[in-house]
Specification:
- This protein is of the alpha/beta class and 295 residues long.
- It is 40% helix and 16% strand.
- The strands form 2 sheets. Strands 3-4-2-5-1-6-7-8 form an 8-stranded mixed sheet, with helices on both faces. The chain has a two-stranded antiparallel ribbon with strand order 9-10.
- Strand 9 and strand 10 form a beta hairpin.
- Helix 1 crosses helix 13 and helix 6 runs parallel beside helix 7.
- The longest helix has 16 residues.
- It is globular and about 50 Å long.
Length: 295
């Protein structure tokens, strides 16, 4: 079971959008996926169509009252579950202040669920408090969504410093394995410069003991797409709301990268008619043409 914390202390970089839609994409690929919403704003919960009314069981009950995750999570779609959040989770920071071992509560509870899923994604708040520390302590991997501008890049230093501290003191297995660029505009020179600077920074860490020494920048960039901004208001992932848009294509390609698969190449055939005109046939058209020839 891959336990992945999706974090960035800067807001508005596509963190929750990535957590929800990458989870949905992996579910579409046949993986069993659970999203843990560790943000008191409950954006991932709302994104998947659950109203955070404070009446239903949530991650607050898991962390503060040691409620089993199996009693809190809900099935959203085929192979996709979420353990939701609500505003009560904001109180967890205070209520857990005097609890011994408060940083590893989630890790211990996830051990009870070991093997229940192929992927567990933890959508973290844009801060580095107790909730995010729980995610880092429970995770084996960290994904960092990053908007390609220099202020976002500048803030990565503190984030990486925190992962190094958690890896040293609490969770030696923690590794930063992937960085995905969101809200990407390939036509801008700035985006290309940020990618180059980020790659240079990662290359310098190769061969060291830093948790990000083997991190990669995913080749799939999540393009700026209005459909990705619209779908949360309908309580749907991008695959339910607009499955043919660029946002859906990008997150599906990212899911294949996470799974270690190469993007499939669609086959085609060129047919030339009696007048010498060429036509590119789709896979289905080519298949139909071949069947006709056999007849």
């Amino acid at each position: 079971m891959r336990r992945i914390a999706i974090i960035n202390q800067k807001g508005g970089v596509g963190k929750t959008t990535t957590a929800v839609n990458l989870a949905a994409a992996l579910a579409e690929c046949g993986q069993r996926v659970c999203v843990l919403d560790l943000d008191p704003q409950a954006h991932a919960t709302t994104h998947l169509g659950i109203e955070p009314d404070g009446k239903s069981s949530s991650m607050y009950d898991v962390l503060v009252h040691s409620r089993p995750l199996a009693e809190v999570r809900r099935k959203i779609a085929e192979r996709l579950w979420i353990a939701g959040s609500d505003i009560d989770l904001a109180a967890a920071e205070v209520e857990l202040a005097g609890v011994v071992g408060r940083e590893v509560i989630l890790r211990d509870l996830l051990l009870q669920d070991e093997g229940a899923f192929d992927f567990v994604f933890m959508d973290c708040a844009p801060s580095l408090g107790v909730l995010t520390l729980n995610a880092l302590s429970a995770a084996s991997e960290v994904f960092i969504p990053l908007q390609p501008h220099f202020l976002a890049l500048h803030g990565m230093g503190k984030l990486l410093e925190t992962t190094a501290l958690v890896a040293k003191r609490i969770n030696p297995a923690l590794k930063v394995t992937g960085i995905m660029l969101c809200l990407y505009e390939s036509s801008t020179k700035l985006a290309q410069e940020v990618v180059r600077d980020l790659q240079g920074y990662l290359d310098k860490s190769r061969g060291t003991t830093a948790p990000w020494a083997k991190a990669r920048i995913f080749k799939t960039h999540i393009r700026r797409n209005i459909k990705l901004a619209e779908c949360p208001s309908f309580g749907q992932s991008i695959f339910s709301y607009a499955p043919t848009c660029n946002g859906a294509h990008d997150y599906m390609a990212l899911a294949h990268e996470v799974l270690g698969e190469k993007a499939s190449v669609m086959a085609a055939r060129v047919e030339v008619n009696d007048r010498g005109q060429a036509k590119v046939l789709s896979v289905s058209e080519a298949s139909e043409a071949e069947d006709a020839l056999k007849e």
